[in-house]
Amino acid sequence: xxxxxxxxxxxxxxxxxxxxxxxxxxxxxxxxxxxxxxxxxxxxxxxxxxxxxxxxxxxxxxxxxxxxxxxxxxxxxxxxxxxxxxxxxxxxxxxxxxxxxxxxxxxxxxxxxxxxxxxxxxxxxxxxxxxxxxxxxxxxxxxxxxxxxxxxxxxxxxxxxxxxxxxxxxxxxxxxxxxxxxxxxxxxxxxxxxxxxxxxxxxxxxxxxxxxxxxxxxxxxxxxxxxxxxxxxxxxx
Length: 237
Ligand SMILES: [Zn+2]
Fold this sequence. Notes:
The protein is of the alpha+beta class. The protein is about 15% helix and about 25% strand.
């Protein structure tokens, strides 16, 4: 299996609302939060793990392309798991890898998603407090106060996705669900899948607490291979 090309797509993740991607409480600090964000242990700066972005792109594309299985049968162990069908036409298995399928002929995961480094501002985070509400009186319920650390609105992270093209991608077709909704083949089809995945993360959000206001991100300033504007995410697409 011959690799025929590598592209590097760089962009900025801008926090439209505060962002919470959970870290560990290994280093418990007095006065620390119940629910910290993940940070670089050397610099204490929050970052976006590549695995978080890649996993969210995959999950959203699985829903979008009907690769998300939920037939309500408790005996079905595949229910709700990542797609591992390894079919030629499955964009999810080709781009992200066929989940737990050692017989896959599709080859390696086509994208590598790097950890996103905090780009602007400083490493200061905010602590958000939440509580449950008594449905009758409308007051806070005793004992329900909890807190969560978040990267504040406006923070920006430098992101990078490496796209690897293999010879057997020549036969791959993909029609964009968003943007220009056009059909693409080969190298372009791989990039079109990435563009749709990123768009879906912008629409749905990243990290925890999304349904309560956290995690709205926008992706900007796309560059392909260091210089040119990325055609799949040029302004207006
Ligand atoms: Zn699949």
